[in-house]
Every structure is written in structure tokens, then in C-alpha cells.
């Protein structure tokens, strides 16, 4: 029996975290063409935090959503155009209607792992427009397997055609992935997916564990270009899956070419597992905080590792970037 | 377009209403429908409108709902009927009812499971408090002849057999699953009915509805047949989510309305009847049927978390009891039901 895995590539979305949301229209066009040639099924684009998220709070995007989406659409032929949508950042009327009008094919509606309720209207609207709708549970390491199943079941009822859990902090070990993906596969009707981060060097291993536990959807980015220590490296993932007998529909040589192009044309630095990222992963902090923590820690001369530890203790999640400065101030006060 | 849509509904009422003379007993009687502005309420109003016009009886209708303005906007041809009176009220806070009511059909509350998991307390309140408030108010009406309580097939729990579900087949139940708040509150509402029937001698009959399809049912509802029809109207692909071997059955809306009104006349007090179609169809068969009945040919996609399922979910009623006691039968085949629903929704979309 052919074991088909659906690959979604958020290089141009999660990668935006890695360059402070400064990907240009030209860079988007270049990578879309390369990914399309390689046969990547879904190319996800946008601000790191998704549609409508460009703001002082989480970072201003170089290009507006309209430019990003129109550029990507123009340079994708076979690949579907995907977006990441967090209700609150993105509203239906202001953002989603326009995105679908531009030609977005796949919409992944995301919430914090215990707040699936907020996705009902967005998922409903996507299905109403006949587009592919997926539910995404972010920071999934913060909830138990049973809670994730309950939240995912809500998304399934709201119309999600698949549920993806994100290891947003790169905090998982394979045993965690096995436990959570298996529980989701058992508890859901629709396919389950996994989005890895590489803080502890586990992104590929965790992705493999996910599919061996029953997941059918995986995310990967060129050179792992993504928040913090980056994601599962797409070209490695495709090679490993091919070796294991899975079918992705992606041409290995062409995705290797695409990642070479991506490294040259869109990355100022290729993600590596820096010391801070390891502590961030151990502390369970959202990878999208990396640039903010680095900048503020440097400015106030505190050890970013202490900042991550404290953010982890306080269970801070994406969207609470303003707490970073509060933590830094507390660390300075305690030092005195 | 509106006229064409209304014509479909009128013709369907005429087709389903096979013994119109039996409704002469309702001449100069008043019926209250709670949830009167929803899918079931609209169809009951359409059927009564047909009966009033075709058999020259005079049935007065009270429609109780929370948003009458919305109803008037959606079905202006019904809103202007002079036999229909509106009561804008949340059933949970109901106190007094018009004293001339003779029959009640309790259809309030949404079966939409998205709402149940998002607001379980409201779901429980609607069915528990709503039913209690209604039955309290009903107990003060002088000339009340019958109450039809619309329960749900979900009270049966999980069907782990291949059998059709009869009125006494109960399966296991997970009380701690939040999605079961609907089923649990429907069960307590049935227990309330039992109390009011036994202690206050209210003339209650319970119907346990299964799945319906037809005009006025929102194709955005999260149920397989609605999603398939919506996908087909949008040009596809039709997406089967989960196990395609899952079996359901679908009773067409006008057959449903006729059966409810026949229960009002002939339903035996204290009895429970299944209401639905007894013809099973798998989700795979349903998708292929909708594909073949659509003007444009579209792809069918299957998306499932598992390759193999240990058991097949089958929610299909055994309808022997309602057929025997009330002499109702399914007039519309599944093909006709799908055709009529697609046609009506296409007209509605273009309206």
C-alpha cells in the first residue's frame, strides 16, 4: 500500500520569523517558483504570525498581505497557496475574504492549544467558500494528550479537514510526539499533522515519529528556515521519507535545488541551533520570541537564557511579546 | 427565483401529505411550535399552510422563537400568513402561553454540534430549563390535547451493532465527553417529560428524530450530507472526512413535517417513536450519488485519520413502530431528496 504524506512548506511564513518579517516580494516570487517546480503540494506564505498579524507588537512586515499573496499566487502553478490564520490577528471581513478572493487555496486556522473555540467562525467561513480548511493547535507541548484531543475534536466539528499540532517551542522528544499523535489519530476522524521546530535537534526525528504514529501531514522548510532554531529541514525530510518508502510527490533533486536557491536568495543567515535556542526549547518558549529576546536581552545586558527560563515558568505564549520586557526588568531588579 | 423556491416546497408538502383529510380534526385548533423559526418550524408552518389552503380547515399557528425578524426576512411568504402568530421569546425564560393553545410541538434548541462544544452550558440549559419552562407553562393551559416533544436519536448513545436502532436499543455512553452535553440534556428532557406526564398528566408523546435533509436546512451545518451538497454546489471536490463506510439515513423534510403532524393526531400518549428514514446509505455511496446527480462532475476526496476502522458507525432507525401506529411512510427517495435540496439551494444562492 502506498503511504502518501502531504507536505506543507511554510518557508515563506515561518521563515519570516527568522528575518523579522522582512521577506520581499521578489524573494517570495523566487522561492515560489522553485518550490512549484519541485512539486511541493502546499506553499504557505505570510507574516510569521499569519494573516493580518503585521503590527508593532509582533513585528511589522516588509510587504503587506495583499502583495505577499498576489506575488505568491502569480508564481505558483501546481502548488496550492496556503496561509496561516490566527483569529484575532486575522478577521474574516478585513483579511480572510480578501485572501480567498486573491486565490488562497488552503487555510490553516490556528489557536493556542487550549483555545480551539476561537476558530469556529473562521473555519466555518473557509468551508463555506469551498476552500481547504485545517485546524492548527500551537504550543502543543503545553497541553496533555487528552486535552489536545478534546480541542482537536472541536476543530473537527467546526469543519477542519485535518488537524496539525505545532511543536512551536521545539520542546518535544520523540516519545512526546508518539504519545500525542497516537492519541489524536485515535480520537479524530480527519488526518493528523505535525509541525516541528529544531531547538533540541529533534525536528526530523520527531517528524518521522509523527508519521510512524499515524500522522499524514508534515511541515518542513528549506534549510529549516523558520522561527528560533528553525523547522524540520524540508529537503532532508523529503530524502528521509523517500528512503523510508513514503510518497510525497516532491522531486528530490528539485527540492534540493529549491533549498540551495532559498539559502542564497532569501536567507541572511541559515538557522542553526544556537545556545539560546536550546534553553528556549528546554523552557518551552515560543520560537517566534527568539529575535525579541535576543534584542532586549542585549540592550539591557541580561542573560537571554535566564529570560527564556523565566518566560517558560510564566507559561507565556505567542502574542504576549510585551511580557519579555517585563521579565527582563524583573531580572534586573532581582540582580540588585 | 423566490417563487420557484416556494413552489418546490409547496409541491413537496402536497406530495408528502397523503392523507390530508385526517387533519380535519385540527380545524379551529391552535398549535404552538417552539423553535418555530428553525428548520423544523419552517417546514411545519409550510405543511400547515398547505393543509389550511388545500382542505379548507383553519389551523392557527403560534411560532415561538428568539429572532422573529430573521424569520420574516428569510420566509416573507410565511410571515405574511394571517393564521401565523409570533411569540418572540427564549424558551428558557418562558412563563405564560396563550390560553387558546390546544397542541404543542416542542422543537426548540439547535442540533448543531459546533454550538454544543463551544457553549455546553447553554446547550444544557436550553434543553433542561427550556423543556421545564415549557411544560410548566403548558400545565396551566385548559384545553391542551397533546404535546409532541422532539428529542434526539443521540439519546441512544453509541450504536455498536449492525442493527437498525429501535426505541429500546441503548448503547454505551461517555458522560465525560463534552460533545455529549447535547445527548445528556436530551435525556434529562425526556425524563422531565416522563415526570410531567406521570405527575401532572400532561399528554406527551416523544419523537426521536434522526437525520433529515431538504430546503431550509443550512448547508453550512457540519453534517456529511450538507457538506457534500455544499461542496457540489460550489463545483467540488466533495470531501469525505473520516470513515466513508459510516452509515446514516436521511428523511426528506416534507415527509418529516407530515410525520410530526400525524403524530400530533394519532401519536399515543406516553409513547416514544423514532422519526427518520430506515434506508441506510454509506458516506461513500452518498458522495457518489451527489456527484452523479450534480450537473457538473467533480472529484471526490477521502480524508481520514486511519486506514482501517475497528467498527462502522451506523445511525439508522428502525421505524416499524411509527409506521404501524401512525401509518406514515417515506415518500421521497434519497435521490429525490438530494435533487430537490440541490435545486432549492441553487435557487436560494442565486436569489
SS field, number of helical segments of chain A? 14
Shape field of chain A: globular
CATH domain topology of chain B: Rossmann fold
How many helices of chain B?
12
Largest sheet of chain B: 7 strands, parallel
H/E series of chain B: HEHEHHEEHHEHEEHEEEHEEHEHH
State the assembly state of the protein chains: heterodimer
Average pLDDT reading of chain B: 94
Features of this protein?
heterodimer; A: alpha/beta; TIM Barrel; Helicase, Ruva Protein, domain 3; two-stranded parallel ribbon; 14 helices; B: 351 residues; alpha/beta; Rossmann fold; two-stranded parallel sheet; 12 helices; 13 strands; 42% helix; globular
Topology at a glance:
The complex is a heterodimer of chains A (336) and B (351).
Chain A: E1 3-4, E2 6-12, H1 14-18, H2 25-38, E3 42-45, H3 65-74, E4 80-85, H4 92-102, E5 106-112, H5 120-128, E6 132-138, H6 145-158, E7 163-166, H7 174-187, E8 192-195, H8 203-212, E9 217-219, H9 234-244, E10 246-247, H10 252-265, H11 275-283, H12 290-300, H13 304-313, H14 323-335
Parallel strand pairs in A: 1-10, 2-3, 2-9, 3-4, 4-5, 5-6, 6-7, 7-8, 8-9
Helix pairs in contact in A: 2-3, 2-10, 3-4, 6-7, 7-8, 9-10, 11-13, 12-14, 13-14
Chain B: H1 2-16, E1 29-34, H2 39-55, E2 59-65, H3 68-74, H4 76-79, E3 84-88, E4 103-106, H5 113-118, H6 120-138, E5 146-150, H7 181-199, E6 204-209, E7 212-213, H8 224-233, E8 238-241, E9 247-248, E10 251-252, H9 253-266, E11 272-275, E12 281-282, H10 283-293, E13 300-303, H11 320-326, H12 334-350
Parallel strand pairs in B: 1-2, 1-4, 2-3, 4-5, 5-6, 6-11, 7-10, 8-13
Antiparallel strand pairs in B: 9-12
Helix pairs in contact in B: 1-2, 1-9, 1-12, 2-9, 6-7, 8-10
Amino acid at each position: 500500500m502506498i503511504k502518501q504524506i502531504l507536505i506543507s512548506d511554510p518557508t515563506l511564513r515561518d521563515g519570516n520569523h527568522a528575518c523579522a518579517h522582512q521577506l520581499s516580494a521578489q524573494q517570495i516570487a523566487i522561492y515560489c517558483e522553485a518550490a512549484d517546480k519541485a512539486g511541493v503540494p502546499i506553499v504557505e506564505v505570510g507574516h510569521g504570525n499569519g494573516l493580518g498579524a503585521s503590527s508593532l507588537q509582533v513585528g511589522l512586515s516588509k510587504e503587506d498581505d495583499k502583495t505577499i499573496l498576489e506575488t505568491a499566487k502569480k508564481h505558483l502553478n501546481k502548488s496550492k497557496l496556503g496561509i496561516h490564520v490566527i483569529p484575532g490577528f486575522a478577521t474574516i471581513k478585513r483579511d480572510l475574504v480578501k485572501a480567498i478572493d486573491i486565490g488562497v487555496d488552503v487555510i490553516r486556522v490556528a489557536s493556542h492549544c487550549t483555545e480551539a473555540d476561537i476558530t469556529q467562525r473562521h473555519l466555518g467561513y473557509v468551508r463555506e467558500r469551498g476552500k481547504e480548511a485545517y485546524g492548527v493547535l500551537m504550543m502543543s507541548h503545553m497541553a496533555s494528550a487528552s486535552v489536545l484531543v478534546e480541542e482537536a475534536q472541536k476543530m473537527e466539528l467546526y469543519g477542519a479537514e485535518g488537524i496539525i499540532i505545532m511543536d512551536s517551542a521545539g520542546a518535544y522528544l520523540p516519545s512526546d510526539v508518539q504519545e500525542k499523535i497516537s492519541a489524536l489519530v485515535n480520537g479524530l476522524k480527519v488526518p493528523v499533522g505535525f509541525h516541528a521546530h529544531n531547538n533540541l535537534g529533534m525536528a526530523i526525528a520527531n517528524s518521522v515519529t509523527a508519521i510512524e504514529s499515524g500522522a499524514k501531514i508534515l511541515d518542513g522548510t528549506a534549510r529549516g528556515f523558520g522561527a528560533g532554531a528553525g523547522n524540520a529541514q524540508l529537503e532532508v525530510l523529503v530524502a528521509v521519507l523517500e528512503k523510508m518508502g513514503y510518497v510525497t510527490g516532491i522531486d528530490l533533486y528539485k527540492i534540493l535545488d529549491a533549498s540551495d536557491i532559498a539559502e542564497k536568495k532569501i536567507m541572511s543567515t541559515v538557522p542553526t541551533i544556537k545556545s539560546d535556542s536550546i534553553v528556549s526549547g528546554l523552557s518551552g518558549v515560543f520560537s517566534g520570541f527568539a529575535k525579541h529576546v535576543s534584542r532586549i536581552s542585549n540592550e539591557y545586558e541580561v542573560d537571554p537564557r535566564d529570560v527564556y527560563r523565566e518566560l517558560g515558568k510564566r507559561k507565556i505564549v505567542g502574542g504576549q511579546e510585551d511580557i519579555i520586557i517585563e521579565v527582563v526588568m524583573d531580572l534586573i531588579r532581582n540582580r540588585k | 427565483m423566490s417563487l420557484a423556491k416556494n413552489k418546490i416546497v409547496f409541491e413537496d408538502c402536497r406530495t408528502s401529505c397523503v392523507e390530508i383529510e385526517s387533519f380535519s380534526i385540527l380545524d379551529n385548533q391552535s398549535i404552538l411550535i417552539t423553535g418555530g423559526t428553525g428548520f423544523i418550524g419552517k417546514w411545519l408552518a409550510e405543511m400547515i399552510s398547505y393543509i389550511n389552503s388545500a382542505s379548507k380547515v383553519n389551523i392557527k399557528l403560534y411560532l415561538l422563537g428568539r429572532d422573529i425578524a430573521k424569520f420574516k426576512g428569510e420566509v416573507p411568504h410565511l410571515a405574511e400568513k394571517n393564521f401565523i402568530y409570533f411569540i418572540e421569546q427564549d424558551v428558557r425564560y418562558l412563563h405564560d402561553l396563550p390560553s387558546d393553545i390546544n397542541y404543542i410541538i416542542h422543537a426548540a434548541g439547535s442540533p448543531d454540534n459546533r454550538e454544543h462544544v463551544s457553549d455546553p452550558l447553554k446547550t444544557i440549559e436550553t434543553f433542561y430549563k427550556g423543556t421545564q419552562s415549557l411544560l410548566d407553562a403548558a400545565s396551566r393551559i385548559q384545553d391542551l390535547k397533546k404535546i409532541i416533544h422532539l428529542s434526539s436519536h443521540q439519546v441512544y448513545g453509541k450504536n455498536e451493532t449492525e442493527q437498525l436502532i429501535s426505541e429500546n436499543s441503548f448503547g454505551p455512553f461517555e458522560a465525560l465527553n463534552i460533545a455529549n452535553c447535547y445527548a445528556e440534556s436530551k435525556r434529562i428532557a425526556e425524563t422531565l417529560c416522563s415526570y410531567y406526564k406521570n405527575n401532572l398528566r400532561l399528554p406527551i408523546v416523544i419523537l426521536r428524530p434522526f437525520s433529515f435533509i431538504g430546503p431550509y436546512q443550512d448547508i453550512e451545518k457540519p453534517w456529511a450530507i450538507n457538506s457534500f451538497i455544499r461542496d457540489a454546489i460550489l463545483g467540488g471536490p466533495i470531501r469525505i472526512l473520516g470513515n466513508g463506510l459510516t452509515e446514516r439515513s436521511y428523511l426528506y423534510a416534507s415527509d418529516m413535517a407530515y410525520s410530526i403532524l400525524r403524530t400530533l393526531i394519532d401519536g399515543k400518549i406516553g409513547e416514544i417513536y423514532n422519526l427518520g428514514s430506515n434506508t441506510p446509505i454509506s458516506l461513500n455511496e452518498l458522495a457518489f450519488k451527489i456527484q452523479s446527480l450534480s450537473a457538473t462532475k467533480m472529484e471526490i476526496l477521502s480524508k481520514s485519520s486511519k486506514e482501517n476502522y475497528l467498527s462502522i458507525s451506523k445511525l439508522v432507525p428502525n421505524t416499524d413502530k411509527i409506521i404501524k401506529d401512525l401509518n406514515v411512510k417515506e415518500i421521497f427517495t434519497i435521490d429525490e431528496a438530494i435533487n430537490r435540496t440541490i435545486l432549492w439551494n441553487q435557487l436560494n444562492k442565486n436569489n
